[in-house]
Design the sequence.
């Protein structure tokens, strides 16, 4: 029994548990309905539409039930999932999204206990995301890989991760704000730009330049006119619902941008690993709560940020209480573990799922601006700048 408990407390044990849980989650959804994993069908069909010169951004009701809203580059990279049979493809896609963050967190200079606890803390939100075949786990994994590569002095690997995340969801590009923290910042920025251009133009192999330009034009038009999802859980939705206002999204993006860059002026603090970890946690939170399209499955990214914030500074009653508040209201409110009456009357109409993460965001800003972070622990391989 002791050996089993020890194994379950290790990152390797968490990876095995994830593999089995998401095997069962995927199988369960497939058995419920043939139309399960509609998002996966949208992703894989995007490649064949690209290959056949069709408009990526039409509503193909005979194939799936929503619009494709990602880049032409992402459609090109979905080629392996088109050629694979659908059922094996669904399993591989879900495992990729579930396991990539765990493989990435292993690269950070954290204790194994902290790494395995990370996996358990985000598990419920990861299930929510994978049940919808969302790409949030993939985005989270790429962002952690990018940060870990910077910490391990691998700017090219970091640049590749950032570029892949950028073509997946544009918001992930905020990671470039951390470039000045490291010596190879210029190399990293140039490489990120080069990789991004490569990925953006690689579909030209099968489309030709004129058709690729048409795809990108249609995509940008879609993004500009894309309205918030009716059940989005952003800072904007929370604020507008609670105060009965309809303030424009650009106002909240402005607030988000200003507050996000404020800690960057604390130049000396950047030398501390735990300060950098807290700032990275802030960015993970930012890409969710300031996204006007943030749905419930998106919050696996914010939950990851919450855990990294928690371990970035010494624990006290306030920090533990805030983490519990985040786990209960953000992590459980979309599940059947939360009372349905509260969910339907309060959580959804007022976007209260976002509330703990909004509170965390401003708490993190205050801490980054004011607190002296501890020196790296002897048990932690933290990389200090010299």
Sequence:
């Amino acid at each position: 029994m002791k050996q089993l408990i020890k194994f379950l407390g290790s990152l390797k044990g968490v990876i095995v548990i994830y593999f089995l849980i998401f095997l069962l989650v995927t199988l369960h959804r497939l058995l419920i309905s043939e139309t399960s994993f509609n998002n996966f069908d949208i992703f894989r069909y995007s490649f064949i539409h690209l290959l056949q010169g069709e408009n990526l951004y039409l509503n193909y009701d005979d194939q799936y039930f929503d619009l494709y809203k990602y880049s032409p580059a992402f459609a090109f990279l979905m080629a392996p999932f088109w050629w694979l049979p659908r059922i094996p493809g669904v399993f591989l896609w879900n495992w990729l999204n579930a396991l990539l963050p765990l493989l990435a967190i292993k690269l950070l200079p954290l204790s194994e206990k902290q790494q395995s606890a990370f996996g358990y803390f985000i598990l419920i939100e990861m299930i929510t995301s994978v049940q919808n075949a969302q790409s949030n786990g993939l985005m989270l994994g790429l962002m952690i890989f990018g940060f870990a590569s910077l910490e391990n002095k691998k700017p090219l690997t970091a640049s590749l991760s950032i570029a892949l995340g950028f073509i997946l969801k544009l918001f992930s590009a905020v990671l470039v704000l951390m470039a000045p923290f490291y010596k190879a910042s210029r190399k990293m920025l140039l490489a990120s730009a080069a990789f991004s251009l490569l990925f953006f133009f690689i579909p030209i192999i099968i489309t030709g330049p004129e058709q690729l330009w048409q795809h990108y034009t249609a995509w940008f038009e879609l993004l500009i006119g894309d309205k918030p999802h009716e059940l989005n859980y952003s800072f904007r939705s929370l604020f507008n619902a609670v105060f009965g206002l309809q303030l424009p999204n650009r106002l909240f993006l402005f607030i988000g941008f200003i507050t996000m860059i404020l800690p960057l002026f604390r130049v000396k603090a950047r030398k501390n690993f735990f300060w950098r970890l807290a700032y990275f946690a802030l960015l993970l939170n930012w890409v969710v709560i300031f996204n006007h399209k943030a749905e419930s499955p998106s919050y696996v990214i914010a939950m990851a940020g919450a855990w990294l914030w928690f371990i970035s500074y010494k624990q006290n009653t306030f920090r533990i209480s805030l983490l519990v508040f985040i786990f209960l209201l953000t992590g459980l409110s979309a599940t059947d573990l939360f009372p349905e009456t509260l969910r339907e009357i309060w959580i959804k109409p007022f976007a209260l799922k976002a509330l703990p993460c909004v509170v965390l965001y401003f708490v993190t800003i205050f801490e980054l601006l004011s607190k002296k972070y501890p020196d790296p622990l002897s048990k932690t391989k933290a990389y200090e700048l010299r």
About this structure: Residues 378-386 have pLDDT under 50 and may be disordered. DSSP finds 20 helices and no strands in the chain.
